[in-house]
Amino acid sequence: MRARRPRSFHATAGRALAALLCLLPLTVSAAPDAAPLFRQHCAECHGADRLGGSGPALLPENLHRLRRNKAGGVIANGLPATRMPAFANKLSPQQIQALVDYIYTPPEQTPVWGAEQIRASRVVYPALATARPDDRPVYDADPLNLFLVVESGDHHVTVLDGDRMEPITRFKSRFALHGGPKYSSSGRYVYFASRDGWITKYDMYRLKVLAEVRAGINTRNAAVSSDDRYVMVGNYLPHTLVILDARDLSLVKIIKVEDGLGHSSRVSAVYTVPPRKSFVAALKDIREVWEISYADDPEPVYNGLMHDYQLLEGLAETGPFPVRRIRLDDYLDDFFFDPAYEHLIGAARNGHKGQVINLLVGRKIADIDLPGMPHLGSGITWKYGDTRVLATPNLKEGVVSIIDMRTWKTIRRLKTGGPGFFMRSHERTPYAWVDVFTGPNRDLVHVIDKRTLEIVRTLRPVPGKTSGHVEFSRDGSKALLSIWEKDGAIIVYDAKNLKEIKRLPMSKPVGKYNVYNKITRSEGTSH
Ligand code: DHE
Predict the structure, then answer these.
(1) How far is the CA of 15 from the centre of ligand 1 (A)?
(2) What is the best residue among 45, 157, 174, 178 to mutate for testing ligand 1's pocket, by most ligand atoms within 8 Å of CB?
(3) What is the chain's Cα-based Rg?
(4) Top-level class of domain 113-141+174-286+288-327
(5) How many angstroms is it from 447 CA to the middle of ligand 1?
(6) At how many degrees (to 10) do helices 93-103 and 68-77 cross?
(7) What is the whole-number distance in angstroms between the Cα of residue 218 and the centre of ligand 1?
């Protein structure tokens, strides 16, 4: 007879574990399964793999600013000023919690989008090789009074003749273009960025796509250098700034967005600063704003202090595109510049105040009293008496703040029909237009007299339909307004008497961009 072997601790523990595992399915099946929930409710906007789509990527490294215990509230109640809806009526608290746990779990494979992937994605079309400096436009319209209309309803772009107000052509764009397309200095070329990272170069004379490259997985926006040499792309995922050669979109450099202490950051937005020959990027997760020179000799821009900056920062890397870090006491989600590009005016979402950063001295010089959620990316300026004012809509409150740029004090707060998104004007019109973008009055548009700082007219172009985003013709005589619906339209107004002139059907025309106003950096529009 064989002696019975004593049970080892491991065998006993193993059996106990097996017994426990038998019970587990009961426990697990009681908790909602997050993956199918995510597929059903979130994937359409945030991507099946959480890498972003029309909404941002939802991976732990992109959620630093959202505390985990607040994430459930965002899913339940939605997010103001974004298209994030409230799910409280569709999902139980347990389902919401399961989704929170899911998005804070790292993916099985870390997404990679580096030089190899960027280079492999590039497509060069035959039209690039045949482009000549003396090419003429293939249409008889004024090439400087064209508008590009981004139609997100069916992901197309319309090229519109701004004199006749008639479409010249319409072409398919990449998925979910976001931010303004950026023109080269003559207006001949334009660069589009899509939320999923594609940059497209288009020839405005020959009406042809020239080249495309995927610069990121989840992209914020792009900027073009004033010398037409570079395109800089700011990404949410990966945490990079990507510099492309503007001629053919080949990769020039990838800059990792890090603070040197192991923290990386999404990019809020990047713009070009022509007088300084630099790009300026605001960061979402690091309290810094970066200036990146594209000048062959960056020293004059940095007052001869570049070397000191680099030593101070302990930056090993010198050479082209040096980064100057300007430390801030709050994040910058949104910003714009004064017309001289000396000051950057920005704010954090929910920061309750704006910050004015002087680019010459490289530090904050003033706070601005801005409650709610100012949308400074849509800020504009104009001369008012012997000073200049800036005005910004608010994504959370029905208010337009008007600020004296000499004192940085608020001089007027105009009550509007609800939170607004875009504000626009033109040097040759006495009016500034601001939309109401959310809430029951989202079909309203207010017209502000820049001389009196009063709302002088409120339009309701199509009752019940969201109206927003105005852009002016080259001479400021016409204002084009979007009806933001799939079966939407552009309504052309006489900018003086505010009467409707024409209606052009469009598929959710999210934004429109006049060549002349953009390349001359009109004070009434975004750049
Ligand atoms: Fe935008 C521009 C940020 C949501 C339509 N938006 C910009 C810019 C930034 C920005 C930083 C400037 C980039 C540029 O022009 O180069 N947008 C954000 C957000 O943080 C926010 C609130 C959340 C998000 O999902 O990113 C956001 N934006 C939206 C929308 O939901 C809008 C209304 C619809 C859409 O298509 O996504 C939208 N944003 C726009 C448009 C511009 C823009 C049309 C260009 C405005 C212009 O005239 O220059």
Answers:
(1) 57
(2) 178
(3) 25
(4) mainly beta
(5) 22
(6) 130
(7) 14
Residue type, 365: I
Distance of CA 221 from the midpoint of ligand 1 (Å): 9
User: For ligand 1, which residues put their CB under 6 angstroms from it?
Assistant: 56, 81-83, 152, 178-180, 221, 268-269, 377, 421, 469, 510-511, 526
> How is domain 142-162+373-527 classified at the architecture level of CATH?
8 Propeller (2.140)
Taking only the tens place, the pLDDT of each residue in 338-392 is 999 999 999 988 777 899 999 988 899 999 998 888 888 889 999 999 999 999 9
Domain ranges within the chain, ordered by starting residue:
34-103, 113-141+174-286+288-327, 142-162+373-527
CA of 157 to the centre of ligand 1 (A): 16
Nearest-CA residue for ligand 1 atom 42 is 179
pLDDT higher than 50, residue 2:
no
Rounded Cα distance between 287 and 264, Å, is 11
Which ligand 1 atom sits closest to the C-alpha of 511? Answer: 44
Burial class (CB in 10 A: 0-12, 13-18, 19+), 415: exposed
Structure tokens at 384: 């008012």
| pLDDT tens digits for range 231-271 | 999 999 999 999 999 999 999 999 999 988 889 999 999 99
The architecture in CATH of the region 34-103 reads Orthogonal Bundle (1.10)
Output the average pLDDT for the chain.
Answer: 90
Residues 6+ apart with CB under 8 A from 312: none
Say what the pTM is.
Answer: 0.90
List, as own/partner pairs, every contact residues 89-97 make where C-beta atoms lie below 8 angstroms and the sequence separation is at least 24, other chains included.
90/41, 91/37, 91/41, 92/32, 94/31, 94/32, 95/32, 95/37, 96/72, 97/72
- Do domains 34-103 and 113-141+174-286+288-327 share one topology? The answer is no
Distance (angstroms) between ligand 1 centre and the Cα of 81 equals 10
Structure tokens at 207: 């009406």
Atom of ligand 1 nearest to the CA of 180: 15
